[in-house]
Predict the structure.
Amino acid sequence: MEVSSLAIFFVSARSHGGQVITIDSLNKQYHTPRGTYHALRDVTLQVEKGDIFGIIGLSGAGKSTLIRCLNRLEEPDSGSIVIDGREITGLATHELREARKKIGMIFQHFNLLDSRTVQGNVAFPLELAGWPRKEIAQRVAEILDLVGLSDKAGSYPAQLSGGQKQRVGIARALANHPEVLLSDEATSALDPQTTRSILELLADINRKLGLTIVLITHEMSVIRQICGKVAVLDRGEIVESGPVDAVFSAPSSATMRLFLEHSTLLQGSGAGI
Amino acid sequence: MNEDLIPMLLTGFGETLYMVVLSTVAAVLLGLPLGVLVVISSTGHVMESPRLNRVLGVVINITRSFPFIIMIVLLLPLSRFLVGTTLGATAAAVPLSIAAAPFLARIIENSLKEVDRGKVEAALAMGATPLQIVRKVLIPEALSSLVLGLTLAVITITGFTATAGAIGAGGLGSLAIRYGYMRYREDVMFATVLILVVFVQGVQWSGDKLARRINRNQHRLG
Ligand SMILES: Nc1ncnc2c1ncn2[C@@H]1O[C@H](COP(=O)(O)OP(=O)(O)OP(=O)(O)O)[C@@H](O)[C@H]1O
Ligand SMILES: [Mg+2]
């Protein structure tokens, strides 16, 4: 499918649900012995229900900081985050823990538990959420089937390939029926072919479950392949955002132009996806 | 070789074994929470508390710097209070476990610190409480390293029991000193050392084997 038609398909198919994530004037500073670093400056964003929203930026732009603020693995200094009608930024510790059970997250380095089998890893969030044992087994089987890993249920992470590990990560993130899925460079440790199959899986899940996905990446090809909307982050600021096709055809920021130039170059040489 | 030697050695070994087991169990009960608290109270961890972390660090360092023989003397009143006497294997378990606990705490701290922060973070992102992270992430993920640490602690405690034997704890150490050293019974001296060597080897061998077994599935071979 061509880039623009793919993007239009996603935007048109998914803009009926209203906002599921609203970020308003988010600021985050890091204080180091060498001074203060402003990692996020007045970040304001809306993500619609059922969308796959990409955030792209160069290394150090603040992408990880931003996505980690969404479930408060990182504490923002000011601003507000509302997910599914709940103000995340105003929650007390125990409320935050409950809210996190409905926000799935996947990681660049998978972060699976090596002491647990695939099955055990997927069961983990369900144990935390207090599911009865029998229902856990049922749900784990169901979700492993969805990510295509039923035959690996008894394997340990060390016995899996990178792509399979990320499938386990995705299964784990989806197990407890999250409202949103956060993805922090989930394909950056994978080869292009595996990346493609993981992105296909995410798109598939988005379609089947109507799950909202926020993903950060420094790769244009990732945005191109599955995102409906994109925001460009540059030194802690959103410099541009909108539907992928619009941003791609008429980039307004220097960063985006740089990304586009670079990715066309790659495509020209045959290295792009 | 005297025929009284065998039962004497058996009793001695029994006492040593009893002291080692009792002290190890008590040292784990004291040292595990201590080691866990040091880790989770460190900067950026799930129960960050620089004050608590510093206090625990100081307590551990102070208790670790006492020579064991001094520790025994200092803790005589505590032994008397808890056990009713300052003599015998049970009484000796009091200073033994208190001396071993901070040592064990450091070993446990080092093992738990090795657990990848990413795993802890993933658990936090799933809404885990600090206690759940300790029980379901830190300890299981560090288990083989913890087993090796515990093996080291058992061996160290075995060494301590010999010192305790010098001042009335019983066990093989006391035999070696009373007969081997004071009465020039070289056979007793030799036999006690031999038993201790075999025991320590056995403990190390079992610990290694258990740790390997736990590790078997968790790391790619080769
Ligand atoms: N804990 C921290 N303490 C101090 N500075 C930090 C901390 N975490 C991040 N930073 C700084 O904040 C900025 C943004 O970091 P962040 O990890 O969000 O970037 P990123 O866009 O995810 O980059 P990458 O693509 O390399 O992962 C960087 O300059 C980084 O050095
Ligand atoms: Mg990052």
Summary: The interface with chain B takes residues 71, 73, 96-101, 103, 105, 107, 109, 111-116, 124-125, 127-129, 156-159, 172, 176 of chain A (CB under 8 Å). The first helix of chain A runs from residue 3 to 14. Strands of chain A lie at 19-32, 35-48, 52-57, 78-83, 86-87, 103-107, 180-184, 212-217, 229-234, 237-243. Residues 2-102+178-268 of chain A form a domain with the Rossmann fold fold (CATH 3.40.50.300).
